[in-house]
Amino acid sequence: MEELAAAAAAAYLSKAAPTPAPALAQAAPAIVEKTMPAKPSGTERVAQPLGNDEATAAMELAAPGGGCAEAFTQIEPQGLAATYWGEPPEVTSDLSILFRGARNSPGSEPEHFERVTHVNGVPAGGRFAVTARIRGIASGSWTVSAERIETPDDTAGQFDIAAPQTATARTTAAPLVHGPGVRLWTWPLLVGLGAVFAIVMQALLLTRMNENATAAVLISILGCLLGYVGAKLWYLALHRQSLRKFVTAGACIQGFLVVSLGVLVLGGAAFGLGVGLLLDMTTPGLFLGIAIGRPGCFLTGCCSGRPTVSRWGMWASDRTLAVRRIPVQLIEAFAGLIIGLATLGFVLYGTETPYDGAVFVVAVAIYTWVRQLLFPYRADPHTRRGRLLTSTACGIVIVATILLGAV
Questions:
Q1: pLDDT digits (tens, 9 = 90+) for 158-179
Q2: Three-state DSSP class for 204?
Q3: Do residues 36 and 3 make contact, with C-beta atoms less than 8 angstroms apart?
Q4: Distance separating alpha carbons of residues 344 and 349, to the nearest angstrom
Q5: Who wins on pLDDT, 58 or 161?
Q6: What's the pLDDT score for residue 376?
Q7: What confidence tier does 37 reach under pLDDT thresholds 50, 70, 90?
Q8: How far apart are CA 211 and CA 63, in angstroms?
Q9: Residues 293-332: pLDDT tens digits?
Q10: Burial of 193 from C-beta contacts in 10 A (0-12 / 13-18 / 19+)
Q11: How far apart are CA 189 and CA 170, in angstroms?
């Protein structure tokens, strides 16, 4: 999952030239962008000052306002996001965008950056947007241009090479830098709502069973807090990153579930609660909470689906390339909703289970199996062998529980 941050404002640009062409967007904290962390692609190197080409389309961008928005321009490190808007290619293609920036600082040492961003699999049909997030630059106003460049493996005729696109914007706090298709504030909001809903549902079900709901709620809150730490550490380990990046790193749901459920089991045993029953009463809220929180991943550009030309695709971003994508996060949220409702009905009206905790075990196995089915449609599909082994283990768990119930 994706770096957590407060919502940043951003801005769209529209091309001023009368002929239709892509537009360049810059993130700015003054205007709310209509649209957890990907690695910036491409390379950065020193560039020469920008020239004034008559073919360059000039664009305007609102400067940051006062108050909190202005405060973001004082937080270090600073950064900005430049977005190249392109028309669809004739066939699914790869492309490279050259971003150049020059700081508007009269009377001081000139500062420049240059970055080439490579993206793969731009689908035919529908406009696309390629965003470069430039971090660690001097604060202030920058003029940035973006243009498509030819690479040795380009296929002629797939794209129309348009004139460079330019815009001017001020920097903002680097963790808040993003492009179109990304709404940073939705992840912490929806995940937080999902966690609160899960704990409330757990308390209601335990109260109905005359169990110690207060102790369970306190343990669950502690589990959520430590689970957040576990989710960040899991992300760092998965992406082989240093602990120094803990604050800005993304978060993985696997780490959250492992740590939070571990705390729940240990805490339940310490307070004398029936661990199996506690897990069963936690299951409906857990998966309904996933149904609430998972759309936050779709809206913040993490766990993204593959680009597609299908009419079922939805315009979304992986924080670098915004195109029509398979909405795997929303499909997973729907699966969580179905599992949550099914387990809620079972714990309220179901028959006796083969063992305490069976509802939880089967629900987790089904959810894990669904995730394996969805992985091939994600931008990060994982290994086929790993998916096969995990799916097999889930099937064995489900069948074994059913057989135990039939005995």
A1: 555 567 889 888 898 888 888 8
A2: helix
A3: yes
A4: 8
A5: 161
A6: 92
A7: very low
A8: 57
A9: 999 999 999 889 999 988 889 999 999 999 999 999 999 9
A10: middle
A11: 27
Q: What are the chain's domains?
A: 24-176 (2.60.40), 186-211+274-406 (no CATH)
Taken as a whole, the chain contains a residue count of 407
Nearest 5°: phi and psi at 82? -115, 130
Looking at residue 378, what DSSP letter applies?
B
Q: Which of 373, 368, 293, 372 is nearest to 333 (CA)?
A: 293
Q: Read off the pLDDT of residues 102-160 as tens digits, 9 standing for 90 and up.
A: 998 877 778 899 999 999 888 887 789 999 999 889 888 999 999 988 765 555 445 55
The dihedral formed by the CA atoms of 275, 278, 284 and 287, expressed in degrees to the nearest 10: -50
What DSSP line would sit under 294-359, residue for residue? Answer: THHHHHHT-SPBPB--STT-EEEESSSEEEEE--HHHHHHHHHHHHHHHHHHHHHH----SSTTHH
**What separation, in Å, do the N-terminal and C-terminal C-alpha atoms of the chain show?**
41
d(CA 312, CA 57): 34
For the chain, give the longest Cα–Cα distance: 84
Alpha-carbon gap, residue 344 to 205, rounded angstroms: 9
Q: Which of 94, 88, 143, 142 is nearest to 116 (CA)?
A: 94
